Predict the 3D structure of the following.
Amino acid sequence: MTADIFLAGAGQTAFGEHWDRGLRELMDEAVDRAIAASPCTALDIDFVIVANMLAEFANAQAHLGAMAASLLPHRPPAIRVEAACASGAVALHTACALLESGRCETVLVIGVEKMTDADPGVIATGLMGAADTERDVPVGMTFPGIFGMIALRYMHEYGLSREDLSLVSACHHDNAMENPFAQFHRRITREAVSGSTMVADPLRLLDCSPISDGAAACILSTKHRSPTRIAASQIATDTLSITERDCLTSFPATREAARRAWKEAGIRPEDISHIETHDCFSIAAVINLEDLGFAAPGKGIGLYKMANPPVTVNGSGGLKACGHPVAATGVKQICDTAKQLAASGNRYGLAHNFGGIAATSCIHILDHGNS
Amino acid sequence: MAIPDTAPIVYRTHRRLQHKMQAGTILSLTTIVHPPTGFGVKPRSVGLIRLDDGSRICGQLILPDPHADSRALIGCRVQPCLRLHRVNEQGLRIYDVAYDVLSGVRDADAPFPGYILALTGPSGVGKTTISEALTRIASQYAERVPIVTTRVPAASDNEEYVHVTDGEFHAMETAGKLAAITQIASTAEDRRYGYRSADIERIWQERKIPVVVTEMHLLQGLAARYGRRAILSCGLLPPGRSRRMMLSCLLHRLRTRGRDSAESIADRMKNAEGDLALLHSRGELFDHMIVNDDLDTVVSTLQGHMMELQKI
């Protein structure tokens, strides 16, 4: 990073079904909370970046940048960014670029998604836009289908058992019990995961993150200091289609983003205490831990089996238990990582957000050692 | 709203049908219990398939047994077939390629990319002459693969050799660009020979059979690279009822072709003795043993063997 960028404030709505609130109300609540948590006033915000994937599709609403800016009294400049499920982290990365360049001093980043307005079939079709519409969609593919193929291949190559894979969702649900913003506050057993309805062989219902509404907001600033600094912000990309990948059991964009992030932050995986990773499907969490450098290939599940793992993985509950309002997730991961660092007093946390089949993979490292 | 299937999208998908009509191997698969809108209500099996041209696609799978353990189907071969895929909202009947899963037929049993004709025999038996004559007569379906060598170029060399330095040869070898290599010791220098996989694969792409001249190491290298079954392996023997007669025939030929010094002939004769012994002891490496007593007969015999391959 060429500038010291601080997380001045962060806030989120509860994730879940919000039939009584639209995109505007969701954003409004998250922004209010973020401003309240920061030393800034609304007028300190120079620029607004909104992350959203499906508003045109699910809510017949475009032009979210101006909509978000209209929530602030001085109507600052605003843009909207989209990178499927990685939209949130891409918005943060864009904010870092604006701050590093010196064009802005304080940027408000909002991630928002309102998915329950539309029929689930419509949402499933919309989400397939994160893959390749002409290569993957015509065969009748769905995202659970793509990750089902990835999971089966992973099981084939590394011998991961169905029972072990069920640990992932069970563990994330346990973690969410403490998180007031999580969509689900219910413990689930491994057996319940293994015995849930089949969605796309071998993935079952409780392997999949849910459809959710929600918003999260962060205020990043070079002017308003806080204990939490952004130590690294990196994006890497890959092909949209699964048909263009050489390997199904690892995501090269995550490896590349991680390599750059370690270099930028000047730290190693051992220095990290908390990870929020993108567990859109249980198998993704396992692969991510390997690609991020916390486990050897084929050994990702080991972190879930340890009594005292060296890092907490998805202490918030992850996408599975918190809910996954697509573009809000990347921003919400920063809120949660900062909260965990503040609570534990540890120095470094990592947020990993990806889009599609990790066709866009983003890593942010937070450094909570600046008080 | 169902999947995006306006006429232009259907048209673009349709243009790829020809390419999809290939057999392939399952890399992974899944059964989607609730397919997306427009794909019916029955569970739908789809797979990531590596087609035989090396490209990958997602395709619908037709499983022989819907309750089979899907993990066991990874690596199985599939056969393409045209199927009514779905009827879109406008009532357009959309056909697409689906893949029949040949359970039990694993990738290892799959047809290989092509055949290679390998001619093996002692020095002087006529390997080069035969391969020249064969590829001249049957130029539409056979082509010689150039030999990469570190040997010092000789005046009698023709286009069959590509001369490289030791360093270049080593670089190609470490980059995995050589399908097979060998080192032939001689008193003058250590000569290294090899075949580039790019040459072999280019000839296959032209729908021809690559013709290679080999000794034991090259033959085994090619067999390791492309599978023994991909190689039509012919052992060439000099005429003669005994080994002594065969060797004297070779000596006579080496002397009359006038390409080698007395020293080199002595080296070659030493190697030839070993080669002849191997032709007898390693019979499993050869599909046919051919005695080279008449060039035309040998060439037409080989042509016959190649014609059989073309039919497959």
Summary: Residues 328-344 of chain A form the longest helix (17 residues). The first strand of chain A starts at residue 6 and ends at 12. Chain A touches chain B at residues 121-122, 124-125, 128, 133-142, 144-145, 148-150, 152-153, 155-156, 197-203, 242-245, 248 (CB under 8 Å).
